[in-house]
Each structure stands twice: as C-alpha cells, then as structure tokens.
Fold these 3 entries.
Entry 1:
Amino acid sequence: MHSSSFALWLLPLFALPSLASRTITVNNKCSSPLYIAVAGQGGSITKVGGGSQPAGWLQKPGEFSFGVPEGWHDARVWARTGCEETGNSLKCVIGGCPGEDTVECSGTKFGTAGATLAEFTLDRNNMDAYDVSIVDGYNLPMEITASDTKCPKGSCGVETDILGACDPSLVFPQNKDKIYSCNSACGNLVQFQHGSSTDLMSADPNDSPVCCRKGSVTVPHTDCPNTYIPFYKVMKQMCRDAYVYSDDDMYQDAVFACSNSGKPTYTVTFCPNGDGLGLNPPPISKAVKLDREPGDNKGNLQKGPDQVALWAGVKGTPIGNTGGESKKATQVPTVVNSDEHQTTKSTNTQSTPTGNVNAVVVTSTVTQKDDSTKSYTSGSNVYVEVTVVETVTVKRDIQDRRLGCLRGKRWVGKREMDC
C-alpha cells in the first residue's frame, strides 16, 4: 500500500512540467466581468499549479493565469459578449462556444464569429508567434504583451474603439439593432475592390480572391494582396499592430515573433485603456460611413504583385453622374456552362440616375477569362451588366460572376467612382 501510494504521488510531480510549461494571463481591465474562452491544439490548458482547468470562465476585473503545454498551437483566447446566462445555460451573440451553451467551454472548438482574438503558436522553430486578429470581427479592445520586454506588442482598439467607428456594411450580426461586433470585409461579404482600381466585385466567402479562397482550389499566398481589401487602410489605422484580413501576415505589424529561449509568458489584456463599447453595444444608428480605400501593398514581405491576372479588374467608360447612392439590387442568377462546375452567386448594385442617358459597352482587360457585356434600360435607369466567366483548369470550373454598373459610375459611401 505504501509503495503504491508513493508511486501515485510521484506521477503528478513529474508530469506537471510537461503539462503546463508556459503561462498565459488574462487581464480584465474592463469595469465588468467577462466570459473568457480558450481553444487550441497541442494539449489542454491547466491550472498554473497543475490540475484541470475549464476552457471557459466568468472573470471579474483583474488577472487570471492558466498553464499551456509547450508546443500549444493554433490557439485562441477571446471574450464572449452580448451574453445572457439563465441557470446553467449561457447564450452569447458574439464568440459563443459552438454546441456548448455553458460558461465552461471544452477548448476544442473556436468561438462563433465577431470576437477580437488573441492567437498563439508556441515553440515553432524555437520561436513563439502571436497576434491580435480581427479577421473574424472585433468586439473589445485587446493587447498582447510578453514577459520578455524585447518582444513586440500586439494590439487593436487601444487608439480607437472600432465599435464607435464601424461602417454600416461591416456591422455584425446584420440583423441586430445594436453594433455587437464590427466584422471584416471577408466575414460580412462586403464587395471587394479590383486591385488598385475603384471597380467592385461581389463577395462569396468560399470563392473570393481577397479571402484566398477559390472553392477547393488553393490560392497562392501572394495572390491575395491587401490591394483587394476595402476599408483596409482605415482599419489598419485603428489597429496598427493587428491582423486585419486573412493574409495580413505578408505585411509588417500583423503577426509577431518572440524567441522562446527564455520561455516567456504572455498577457492578454481586455480594455487596456478603459471600457470597450462591446460591454454595452451602441445602437445601429451609430454606425459611421468609412473610406473604402484598399491597401497599397507597401511593405509586402513576400514581394507579391499589387494585382494578379486571374483577378484583374474590369474597366468601364464614365457616362455621367448617377445622382444617388448605391443600394442593393435584385440578385442575378448564376449561369453555369460546364458539366463539372461550382457556382458563385453574386449581387449587383444599382443607383438612380438624374436623367435619361444611353448605355455604353464596357471593355475588359481581364486575361484568361471569357467576358461579355449587355446593356439595358428600365424607366430612367440605365445599366451595364458585365459577365465574367472564370475558368480554373485544376477542376475545370466555369463560374459566372456579374457586376452591375449604372451609367459607368458607382457611388461608394459619398464618393463617385468610375466602373
């Protein structure tokens, strides 16, 4: 009995270092408690002194630390907001643990969209990588700091709380009366800009160049520059040290690295400069029109091009002032011309002109595509419809994407753009 008890006592003693060799601290500087959640690969989180630790908890203002295994990777820490707790049930508008409507999450599933994320991959090639990401949306200001003061700091919302400066097209969820989160252009299916031109392309989350997704075909990393991302410049100004779209790691001040030789610890701080608006989300009426200007590809660490041939823009001839701001029009059905295919749904835009004009033919500079144009009138509205059929030789996919253009002009926010 004695030797058996001794063996059981030794097991946790020697197992602890491998179970929790690194420490992550969550610092809640908000004025109210937060529902924190954690998920990752490479092992479960533990209490700092050892023992099981739930991957979700309600944290009062102050610090709470937990242990993570060396090699913890593809990991996230976030705060759930817009939550309502009833008995043992917790339902959150932003960041809820899928299929787990409880305070204590399992740590095996990432949260639902809309939350600011602290992301970690520890001990990869003797380095730790980490970032603050708003690719899935933004709900609270966040900052990541390392115990090694030589390591850079990641942050978002510390200069401007994005919920107080969110474009109406980025408000998430879109069917709510409050701004619970400000989503990314990819997440909210905002129309994407064609390279450095002012033309727009309808968005599909599973088939979009800017999101580096084209069905099941892998899009090369360098084919997704920030020159396609609307709102990139203004979002980067508000989150200078954060990851604002899916391939932002091609540029500086997005993903950070720190030598793991000293086994640094990390602190994730919510509301570092005071309360975030996500604690009491503003009404939808507070959404603010933002400049849609995309990135300019400066500082591209991969030396990728500003534009890529497959996603080059369609050019149009200006034919007058539309006299009104764009609004969504009736969805155009997709036309498919292949037995082996994958369809892409698109949404046109329309504007109301100030008088009768004649339609014009739009010319295309797109390579490796079959393009056609068609013009038509409806009352005093004149439209030019551009059909772009894309062929992907890997799967022989042929996709039809239609772009609406009224009198050669679009209204983007308060600015008139050529199309």
Entry 2:
Amino acid sequence: MSDLKPPGTFSGGPIDDFVDGWALIPFVGERGHYWREITNGLRRQGIVNDDDLRVYRSLCGVTGRSTPHAKAMNVGNWPLCKHCAKKAPRWARKEERATCWSDPAVRALFR
C-alpha cells in the first residue's frame, strides 16, 4: 500500500449560476482563482451583447469568461493562486476551499 501515488488534480464539476468565489474558469491558467463577476458593468457600457456570456475578474487581475457550454468549475484539489488567497475575504480562505463558496447555504455555515 505504500507504493500508492497521490491522485491527480481534478475539479468538483461545473457551478451553476456562479457569481463569485473560488473557481476554475475554463482555459484560464492552472490555478484556482477567487473570481467576481463584472459582466453587468460591461453590459451597461455596451461591451457584452451576449446574455449567456459571463465575464469575471480575479482578485489578482486575471480576466476570464464562461458560457453555458464552458461553465466555471469547482476548484476541487487544484492549487489556489497565492495572490488571490492573500486578497480573498477571510471567510473564503478556509481549508474547505473545495466547497463552492458562491452557494449561499455554504456561506451561511462559515459566518
């Protein structure tokens, strides 16, 4: 049993109606970031015309986009961005990072 290798990285699956929190945005880097949706402001400026497109900005400044076909994914056991971890709200840095922090029921557990 000592020759077992640790598992590879995996995500926890897609997050429906993701707004903010720790997540993997498809095709954006190799780490989980703390994302906040910025689509609404872009819609007001006329930059985003597609209602299904969501635009996010991480606390470290990376921009990502998701669509219904390429949704934000739960972090799973992927490593987290160190810059986002320093800037993230205190309740979001807890060890239970694999939990979807955008879920209000989960947030209520840690308030």
Entry 3:
Amino acid sequence: MPAIEFAIQILVVLLLGDGAVIGETTEKNETLIASLNVTETTSFCGGFVTHSFGNITSPNYPSNYDDMLNCKWHFQVPSSNRILFQFYKLFRTEQGYDRVSIYDGISNSARLIVELTGNDSLSQIFTTTSNTATVRFTTDSSLNFAGFALYYSVDPIPACGGVLYTDGTIETPDFPAHYPSSAKCRWIITADVNKKIVINFESFQTEPGRDFLTVTIK
C-alpha cells in the first residue's frame, strides 16, 4: 500500500471494530504467565467459570477419561479483561478422535482459536480477544488416555490510541494477532509548523465492510 502524505500538522486516526469477526491472525507467544495461584481444580465435564484464575482438567485426570464425552466449559471473567490459557504437564488424547477446542467467546459462532488432538507437551499460551471463552472436550467410543490439564488466568485488554508528536509506529492492540472485539482506538498525530505528516501502511487487514480505519484532517 503506498504512503499517504498530509500537508497539515494535526491528524486523527480512528479504528472502529464491530465486535464480530476480527482482522489478521498469527501466533504470538510473547506474553508469559510469571506467577499463577491455582484455585480448586475443576475436573467436572463442563460448567460455567467466572474465577479470574484456576485450572480445568479432563474428567478423572490424571487417570483416563471416559468414552463419548462432550464437555463444555464457558468462561466469563470481569469486563475489560481477556483470558489466557496454557496447558501444563503432558497433553494426551486419542489422535484424530478425542480433541480439545478453545473458542474466542461463548456464542455458537465464536471463532476457533485452537483445536488439539494427540500427544504433545505444550508451552504456548492461547489468548482470547474479550472476557468470554469456551473450552470443549469431545471423545469417541474407543481408546482413552489421561487427557489434559489447562491453566487459565486473566490479563487486561490492551489500551489503544494516544497522542504522537514524533516519528513512530501505531498498531492495533496485539498486532499481528487479532485485535479485540468492539475496539475503538483514536490516535492524534501532530507535526511541527512547516512540516507534513506521512503515513505508510506496512500491513492492513480488517473485517471487510464492518471494521474501519479513518484518517481525518483537523
């Protein structure tokens, strides 16, 4: 995308998200859980979770889980927070048949963040864009294994916007991962007298027709 030049000294850049499908997605693992105080383990087959931190496990963990499970945990933590998930110890299910899915929300149309099956030792952190999430665990009628244990904690949704007076970079929250639902970011860019503002988009991807970036001259 070519650079855009403005022969003015003040510029307002506004990002508006509609709260539905969101822009570019890549994996991002920079966030770390440095300390985690674990609440009582939840090993039931599903439920509604409102605690800010804790863990859930497959039924019977660390013993083998049962056949024909369809467990759903719905998470809703305090607003203005997002949810961080991280598997610990060994993740072990029947490859291709028993799986764990994490969704970015609690609606039926929530975006799938990750789906895991088989054996792995996972260190990656999976992050939602809002304060709700769903974890689903399904099994078939044959082989059973130990399953999983999953930590969860909360983290403030990053703020966006501000006032800029010098050269720099502006990004959507969590770029290059998904920006949050219903984002409203406003940047004011100010230049010295007799100077102009040049904006060069290095990457741009939003939900077509619903999420907008506008540039306004003041």
